[in-house]
UniProtKB/TrEMBL annotation:
Coiled coil: none
InterPro entries: Flavoprotein-like_sf, FMN_Rdtase-like_dom, ISF_SsuE-like
Keyword Membrane part of the UniProt annotation: yes
Protein name: NADPH-dependent FMN reductase
Pfam families: FMN_red
Domain (NADPH-dependent FMN reductase-like) ranges: 1-92
Organism whose genome encodes this protein: Companilactobacillus paralimentarius DSM 13238 = JCM 10415
Length: 253
């Protein structure tokens, strides 16, 4: 079992480096770790008929690891350029191309990853506006194309003037260290997702019927009015929940 830390900050010993280090030094004994600082590599796109030993070396490190931990600060409300460039250049290694240009997950399918990011804005501002969301979203988009499975996110807002990571984030890093130390099956969240789906539907049905109650004078015992109002209210609730799960699900504090 091996965990690879991928540091994509301008600073080799900054806060993202500290969070990454806190994760890696707390993994279970027997789990191997390695950190690569992407700024140390001259990462350029692969050109046809030309060798690219840097990309080959990095791809081999990815292949030799079971879990990848990306630590990348938020720059300009987006993913740090060095990690974005790494993802752009690794694209032909992350995915296979179909004849029509579509992509399918490549050789790293079913590996796992953890994302770490940080930003200057306050915890409250990040909670409300989601400054770090786009960093996580870009990582998720690339990893999803590559078929790599997400373990979680760690975010550190309020970093202006901060020199060392606070105690609560150290604890969170240690918690994730334990989580990623265990060899995972392909995707062990299926049962969890069905349970979440069951409770989502149960709660939405309850809210829908609750909204229908004050309308009962108008709906009466008419089956089709009951059915139509239930469907419309349920649909609106479902759309809101799906929007939340899809766009606002990232850790913000
Ligand atoms: C080029 C650049 C752009 C940045 N853009 C933002 C930003 O849009 N929002 C923000 O809150 N912080 C921004 N920051 C602050 C970084 O997110 C902050 O410095 C980071 O927490 C430092 O992480 P590190 O110690 O690992 O380098 C930016 C920093 C740099 C260098």
């Amino acid at each position: 079992m091996k965990i690879l830390g991928i540091l994509a900050s301008h600073q080799e010993h900054g806060l993202n480096a500290q969070m990454l280090d806190e994760v890696l030094k707390n993994v279970d004994s027997g789990v191997k770790t390695e950190t690569i600082f992407l700024e140390n590599y001259d990462i350029t796109p692969h050109k046809y008929h030309e060798d690219n030993p840097v990309l080959d070396e990095l791809a081999q490190k990815l292949m030799d690891s079971d879990v990848w931990v990306f630590a990348a600060p938020t720059y300009w409300r987006e993913l740090s350029g060095v990690l974005k460039n790494f993802f752009d250049c690794m694209r032909p290694k992350f995915v296979y191309f179909k004849q029509n240009g579509d992509t399918i997950p490549g050789p790293f399918k079913n590996k796992h990853y953890l994302s770490i990011s940080s930003c200057y804005v306050s915890t409250l501002e990040n909670f409300v506006t989601g400054v770090t969301d786009d960093s996580f979203k870009t990582i998720d988009r690339v990893m999803s194309a590559a078929g790599v499975i997400k373990v979680g996110e760690i975010v550190l807002p309020n970093t202006f003037g901060m020199k060392a990571i606070p105690y609560n984030k150290k604890k969170l890093c240690q918690k994730y260290a334990k989580k990623i130390s265990v060899r995972k099956r392909k995707d062990d969240s299926t049962v969890k997702r069905y349970i979440q789906l069951f409770f989502m539907i149960a709660i939405m049905a309850l809210i829908t019927m609750g909204i229908q109650l004050p309308l009962s004078g108008w709906i009466g015992n008419n089956f089709w009015l009951n059915y139509a109002s239930f469907t419309i209210i349920f649909f609106v609730l479902l759309a809101c929940i799906l929007h939340f799960v899809t766009f606002v699900k990232h850790r913000r504090r």
